Amino acid sequence: MTIRDPIREGLAAGWKVLDASLIESPRTLEADVVIVGTGAGGGIAAEIMTAAGFDVILVEEGPLRSTHDFRMLEAEAYPQLYQESAARKTRDKAINILQGRCVGGSTTVNWASSFRTPAATLAFWRERYGLTEYTPEALQPWFEMVERRLGIGPWERAPNMNNALLRSGATALGIPVGEIRRNVRDCWNLGYCGMGCPTGAKQSMLVTTIPTALGRGATLIHHLRAQRLLSAGARIDALECQPIQADGIHPRQTAVTLRARHFVLAAGAIGTPALLLRSNLPDPYSLTGRRTFLHPTVIAAGQFAKAVHGHAGAPQSLYSDHFLEQYPIDGPLGFKLEVPPLHPVLFSTTLQGFAAEHAEAMRGFAHTHAQLALLRDGFHPESHGGRVELRADGTPVLDYPLNEPIWEGARRALLTMAEIQFAAGAIRVLPVHEQCRGYANWGEAKEGIARLPMKPLLTRVVSAHVMGGAAMSASAETGLTSPDGSLRHVDNVSVFDGSVFPTSIGSNPQLSIYAITARNASILTSRMTGRPAPPLA
Amino acid sequence: MTSRRTFIKAGLLGGLVLGAGGVWYAASREQAPAGRLTRSARSMFQAITPVMLAGMLGEGSGRIERVVDGVERAVAGLSAAAQSELADLFGLLGFYPVRKLLTGIGDWRLATPADIEASLSGWRFHHYALLQGAYAAMHDLVLGAWYAQPESWEAIAYPGPPEVR
Ligand SMILES: Cc1cc2nc3c(=O)[nH]c(=O)nc-3n(C[C@H](O)[C@H](O)[C@H](O)COP(=O)(O)OP(=O)(O)OC[C@H]3O[C@@H](n4cnc5c(N)ncnc54)[C@H](O)[C@@H]3O)c2cc1C
Ligand code: SF4
């Protein structure tokens, strides 16, 4: 079977794609709409706005890599495709953050799990943030539209062993487990979605909306970082950009300026708030970058007598929301249970310890089943998330203090995962915590985990879901953006990405971003054209 | 050999020296070409690698060098901010008085594996976040550099990526 690479085909056909690492002299370009960021939000917005006939420029700070470049090697994928080589950290270094930084954004490297926004999350938004139009019924057509566009549907193949063990342990304890829908077409069940899908099966923005937009004449400029919005009164006049060297890291001096009628910010949570902070736009309630959420995630590794091969097969196919439903949404933090794909670099660096202790755990690599508990932050009255700040060089860093409600949930989650893993037949369970050497049975684990100090840098906390920092709200006091994603206090800027969420989602966020962007980009398009926006292909 | 207690005692003093160290060592600080480790950082990683990977690295010739090269590449792929933070850290640990005080190690090349292991263990649980961070950085860089290499995969029964096309 020949694998198609729509990007290479398009480049050969003469798409307008510029590599800013090669631009020789300062330039100014003009379009109807400039979209910053080519991930979940930027991709969907680009397809909708080009369908309406707008001339669009897409700006991406990362490189352009496509299907045929993806060789399933961690040593290549992390430095090329991830923010800060997959080693982005919160200010105190207690949380490791995975985010994409390439054309397609995090969708190029994500694990394809697709969930609609939970009804309980939307209800909270309506009640606390006045987002009255965000009901499951009102959003349904948008979900359906993007699900159709991105091939989102049930995963027909058997789950891999890593996922199956979550189900067998949970079922033994009477905990319900559900099946995950995925945005794939003709998936080869390889398990390398996190390194860029080498078959083009994953319906990321890289192989769907971006090729469509470029095919309609949009311009893509990669290796270009949006630096500052320049205002003239209440309007944004131009976007000042900084080309990045071929190494993907160091800025170049040649300035690129983009002018447009409208600017769409889709640089992702952290990226979009950082651009706003650099731009110094009016923000009377000092909301920019505040309430940034992560679904802080804790991990437990279970050793099994049988082989698990967690590197192979669709990474995520089963989940449990049981522990999201135990308490009121603003009570003790609930968590979603899933499993991560296991590959040598990410696994070995996540695992605690070194020398013999670490070597022993690594020898069990092929027999390891790991679970993730994603804590639902942003609902508990003391869960305020983090705050995006700027370093001296203008790059962002997230300050996310881990406080008591998080630690209480983390401990409960580690206990839960250990119990499920033993129920699934684990011979040893290793919660990822610096002071933990593993447990041989549930009794030991129960006692041991109860005593583990829950502290930054001791309990391993990670995140692949960055959300918030430019929240939508009906009120200017709690929302930097309006319920349709338009930025307050200026006339011609919209935020269409994960940063508009006023809380975390409480579920993997990509489908929420796709659908809410489709809605808000359509509202913007019809406002600009006076006609209804055309649907996605 | 340095014990945990020495570390804990060294904490406060270490903090003072690290604070002032920036000024002291800046003048004499070794520079490396872009994307490269300094000579002293290399010798530190050459010493740390077999300890961090004890029980896994095995005897293969050139393995330590390949891991250190991998560390160098990994550092070069980090953000500019992370690279300069690491350069500061490596600079401090390459600065004899600071290193001696914090680790008891005078010269990385002469340190015994037991000394290095004690240092790493001390940093790992140190109450001083800078040293805890130093441990975490060494952990991620060395382990990541090793397990990125196909030669590490057989021992963990990872078959490597499948054939596609
Ligand atoms: C490893 C991994 C696995 C994941 N798995 C899943 C999953 O299975 N299911 C799910 O629902 N979600 C998953 N996610 C999360 C999901 O992919 C993201 O939440 C989603 O893609 C975010 O969309 P976004 O538009 O907000 O930002 P992104 O998709 O991150 O896109 C933002 C883009 O903007 C670019 N950018 C940033 N700043 C600038 C700037 N100043 N100038 C120019 N460009 C800039 C970035 O390089 C990036 O390409 C995963 C994420 C990761 C990293
Ligand atoms: S599992 Fe499917 S979607 Fe993921 S990398 Fe393999 S072929 Fe692509």
Automatic annotation (TrEMBL), chain A:
Matching entries from InterPro entries are given as: FAD/NAD-bd_sf, GMC_OxRdtase_N, GMC_OxRtase_C
Instruction: List, in alphabetical order, the Gene Ontology terms for molecular function in this entry.
Output: flavin adenine dinucleotide binding; oxidoreductase activity, acting on CH-OH group of donors
> Which positions fall inside the Glucose-methanol-choline oxidoreductase N-terminal domain?
80-296
Q: Tell me one Pfam family matched here.
A: GMC_oxred_C
Q: Which intervals hold domain Glucose-methanol-choline oxidoreductase C-terminal? A: 381-516
Q: Which domain of life is it from?
A: Bacteria
Q: What keywords is this UniProt entry annotated with?
A: FAD, Flavoprotein, Oxidoreductase
Keyword hit for Transmembrane helix? no
Q: Which family does it belong to?
A: Belongs to the GMC oxidoreductase family.
Q: What is this protein called?
A: GMC family oxidoreductase
Q: Which organism is it from?
A: Candidatus Methylophosphatis roskildensis
